[in-house]
Structure formats: C-alpha cells, structure tokens
Design a protein that fits this description.
alpha+beta
Length: about 550
C-alpha cells in the first residue's frame, strides 16, 4: 500500500546520522531540507521542520528472520521493553514484533510476518516495505471516513471508533488512526498531532495538516516523479548552491538491493577525461609533449601510425578503431573471437586494430575513436613506468578525494557496486559477459555521483592541473557536430560563451552523463545501470534549472 511516507522532524541531521550510519539504511534521495530512506518497496522521507514531532511507524520483515533481525537491531540500538519483554507475538496478525526509538522519539516497529520466508542473513535489504504509519488527529471519525472513501477499509466490523486504535488497510499494510494522548505499545510516548503525507502505490496521496485535518496532496518533486515515470535506474546528483540527489531502481535485481546515493556505477567512455588529465599531467612534468608521435613513442606496437598525442586526444588521428561504430552495431560482437575475460589491460586490445589501415589522414576530421585512448594509456605507461589504472587512481582519484572510485574487475567487484543490466524484452541479464572484465584508458571505471562532483571541483580549482594546462585541456580543439571537443571532454557553447563541459559513456548495461556549467559552477551527474536512460534524465533535470 505505501509507496512513500513523509514525516517531519526538527532533528534532521541527527536523524540522518542515526538511520544512515548507525542503522545502515540506504539514502536514496537527499537535499538540505530532507532525506529519503529505502525500505524495501517503500520509501520513508524525513522533512525538516521547526517543531519536534513524534510518530509511530513499522516495517515488514520476513517471519523466519525475526530472531536474526532482532539481533541485528539490538547490536545498533537499545530495544524497547514492556513488562520485562522486548518482543511480542500478535496472534490476530500472525506476526512477531519488536520496537525501538530513534533520536526524534519516533516509535519504530519491526513486524515479522510469519507467512513470509526469506533465505540468508538479515540485512537492511531484508526490509520488505512500510507496514504501518500512524495518523493522530482530533477528528478521527471524519478523517477515517475520508480514508475509507478511498477504498481503504477499516479492519473489523465496528467501523471507525473515535476513541480506539483503528487499523485501515488490508494484508500487511495499515494506517493506524488514533486520537491524541494514546500511549504507543512498548514505549511511554503518547500519540501527538503532526503533519504527514502518504503516497500509495497507485499514486493517490493522503495528506494530514498540522491541525490533523485530511487534505489532498500534490506531488512536490517533479524531477523525482519524472524519473520514476521513465523507469530510470541509477543516481542523479545536482550541485548548485545546495545539493540535491536521488537514487532509483535496483543495484541488484535478483537480491532486490536498491540503488543508493553512494552506489558505484560503471561509466564506460566517461572516464576518457581521466586519461586526458593523466596525459596533461605528464606533459606538465616534461615527460611527454602533445606533438610527440605515436610511431616514435611505441614503435613496437604502432610503427605505421604517424599521429600525434594531440590528435589522439581530440579523436582526429585517423587510426583504426577496435570497435568501428560505422560498421558494428553490437559491442558484444567484439568478444566472439576474443573473450572479454581476457581483456585485462590496454595491450590486450592492440591486436584488434594495430594491423588495420588508417581511416583518414591525421588531422583531417573528428571521428570518435576508442583505440586512440587505448594508445594514450599505453603511452602513459611507457613514459611513467606504471600501469595506467594505478596512475589514474593515484593521480586523479586520490588527489580529488574520489574515495569510492576505481577500475574494478567484474569478477572481483567491491561492496556497493550496481550491476549493469541489459533489457531483453521480457527479462534482464547482467552485462558481465558484454564488456571487458576490467576498464582502462578508454573506459570502464566505476564512480559514485559525489565522486564525480569532487572530480569536477578539483579539476576546476586547479588541483589536478595548473590553470594554464586546465584551460588548454578545456579549449575547443575541434568541431564535433553540434559540440566542440577539447582533450577528453565535450564542449557545448551558446552564443559567445561555454554553456557546458560534459562527458558521456555508454556500454551494454551502462549509461552516463556528467557536466560542469561554468556560468554558475553547477555540476550535474547522472549514472545509470541500464543501457539507456541517463540522457533523458539529464534533459529532464537540465530543464528545471537551465533555460535558453
């Protein structure tokens, strides 16, 4: 029944710390005035207010995991007791329950439904959904009748009782309608009148005012609603004066682990900008020059490719590509003859293109080229004497504070990574066998949305490169259709100013866009673990803050 429940608190920061760090819940949306928790199929929102507020709410959990859940919770918070007991069995609901209180004083209940079983240990991902939400009002009869009119029935055959605890709903989800000053089970807290809103699974909404009156509620976040309507799966983060971020969909569909704000996503070609930064750093250090030629730098690999580092950086070299987008439609075709699990370094890609003919004369035009960045990675390794992914992690991720980013191997993924999913019509499959087992200079890093924000900030404040070199990297070196291209970065201009520096990445099960808007320093990142969706999400969000 419950899709999203919004409650109010005057202890927002403390509450966020409690639920995110002490209890381990996943934050799926956040700004300066609210945060949203993933609770299985439901979401629980805490909105900042000036006055304190106390509610009762409950979460459904699998019945066979009750003891495990109780141990999990008691290791994080003190459980409430009543008559010496810290649990109860409700025969009428065939469910066991335990209770605790959060920093705001809310009475939180875990209800274990005995008819539901789940295998494995109890974790925060074992939460099924929101089970109960209290509505306290002096107008119990009137509010109850309005809820009943929404086809939400009262449990039992007595109708709405003004002085009793009324259960409205069915199955395992109920609104608890009660008058003020009722003592909640397993606590000394009494019911109080406070505003809240409830969004049902079918989209209908229930609102309760500060006076306890029923009211119609309209959606308050058009971006979030729009992302849900397009079935977006991933994370979006917008940083202007304030920060807004949201997570939608599943990081792991099989185990129903939701995407969270700190989930790591593959970004495919989005990390070509990292390669460009490494190359520019080596130029600044005097180890390399933009005029150096590939055939001289790596004669054993590419004796016939007489192209410059500058041309490789700007996709104007004309060298052949290992994935020719003009003749190949499916990226997975690459692994028919050479399995993806063998593609562990840049050198592994060289046989796919080194003996092919040049596509056009160097410098003649722009044509997007992945092999060019493979070559740049090999150049960096040659002049620095270090593996490219180690250089990127040390020179960029560490310096920029990108603590959760890395070039992770698909067969050894760390905690908190979203699996990429490929839509097959009536089912999904992961992209584990569709992309190289480990990324490199041409793409394949994993990042979080906040890490990408940190990258743009450290690039633009000249932490990663000098001011002069940063400006050279971001200068429009070649026209690429509607956009210009610098070193590893797209440049969108409007009239006589740069509107956006941006990077993109697409692979099977990956779609990514991230941009810096220099007019006001806005940063927007959209990460998705589906093959499509990031661009549409980007345009939706851009439409709310950029006009013209």
């Amino acid at each position: 029944m419950f899709k999203k429940v919004t409650l109010y608190t005057n202890r927002l920061k403390e509450m966020k710390g409690f639920y995110e760090y002490q209890m381990g819940f996943r934050i799926v949306e956040e700004d300066d005035t609210s945060f949203t928790l993933a609770v299985g199929d439901s979401q629980l929102v805490f909105q900042a207010s000036e006055r304190p507020a106390i509610y009762h709410f409950a979460f459904n959990i699998p019945g066979n995991q009750f003891t495990l859940a109780k141990g999990w919770a008691s290791s994080r918070v003190t459980l409430n007791r009543q008559e010496g007991m810290d649990e109860v069995y409700y025969a009428n609901f065939n469910a066991d329950a335990f209770y605790f209180q959060d920093p705001a004083g809310n009475v939180v209940e875990f209800i274990a439904r005995r008819h539901i079983d789940r295998m494995g240990n109890f974790t925060v991902d074992s939460l099924l959904n929101i089970s109960e939400v209290s509505i306290t009002t002096k107008h119990v009869k009137e509010v109850g009748e309005q809820i009943e009119a929404m086809d939400i029935p009262v449990r039992g055959n007595k109708g709405i009782e003004p002085h009793a605890l009324n259960f409205l709903g069915q199955g395992d989800a109920f609104i608890l309608l009660v008058a003020p000053k009722r003592t909640w089970y397993f606590s000394k807290q009494k019911s109080e009148v406070h505003p809240l809103s409830i969004e049902l699974m079918d989209g209908r909404q229930i609102g309760i005012t500060e006076e306890g009156d029923f009211q119609e509620v309209q959606p308050t976040n058009p971006i979030s609603e729009g992302l849900e309507n397009m079935d977006f799966s991933g994370v979006a983060l917008l940083k202007k004066e304030d920060v807004w971020s949201t997570a939608k969909g599943w990081a792991d569909r099989s185990n129903e682990r939701p995407n969270a704000l700190d989930t790591r996503f593959g970004i495919a070609s989005g990390c070509k900008i990292f390669t460009a930064v490494v190359i520019c750093q080596l130029v600044e250090e005097g180890k390399l020059a933009f005029e150096n030629r590939l055939s001289q730098l790596l004669p054993d690999f590419f004796p016939d490719f007489d192209v410059t580092v500058h041309q490789l950086l700007t996709h104007t070299s004309g060298i052949p590509d290992y994935f020719d987008e003009e003749t190949m439609e499916n990226f997975e075709e690459l692994w028919v003859k050479k399995p993806m699990y063998l593609m562990k370094s840049g050198a592994d890609f060289v046989p796919l293109f080194k003996d092919e003919p040049m596509k056009f004369a160097p410098g003649e035009k722009f044509q997007y080229n992945n092999a060019g960045f493979i070559a740049l990675g090999l150049i960096a390794e040659k002049v620095a004497g270090q593996a490219f992914i180690n250089m990127a992690e040390e020179r960029i991720f560490a310096r920029a504070g990108m603590e959760k980013s890395g070039f992770f191997s698909l067969d050894h993924l760390p905690k908190g990574v979203a699996y990429g999913y490929i839509d097959e019509g009536d089912s999904w499959r992961t992209n584990q066998y569709a992309i190289p087992i480990q990324g490199g200079a041409d793409g394949g890093a994993f990042v979080t949305a906040s890490d990408m924000t940190a990258f743009w900030e450290r690039l633009m404040d000249y932490t990663l490169l000098s001011e002069e070199m940063t400006k050279k990297m971001l200068a429009p070196h070649v026209s690429a259709g509607q956009n210009d291209y610098g070193y590893g970065v797209w440049i969108m201009q409007k009239a006589d100013f740069v509107w956006k520096y941006h990077i993109t990445g697409y692979d099977p099960g990956v779609s990514f866009h991230s941009g810096f808007y220099p007019q006001d320093g806005t940063i927007l990142t959209v990460l998705s673990n589906k093959s499509e969706g990031a661009f549409e999400a980007l345009k939706l969000i851009e439409g709310t803050f950029k006009k013209g």
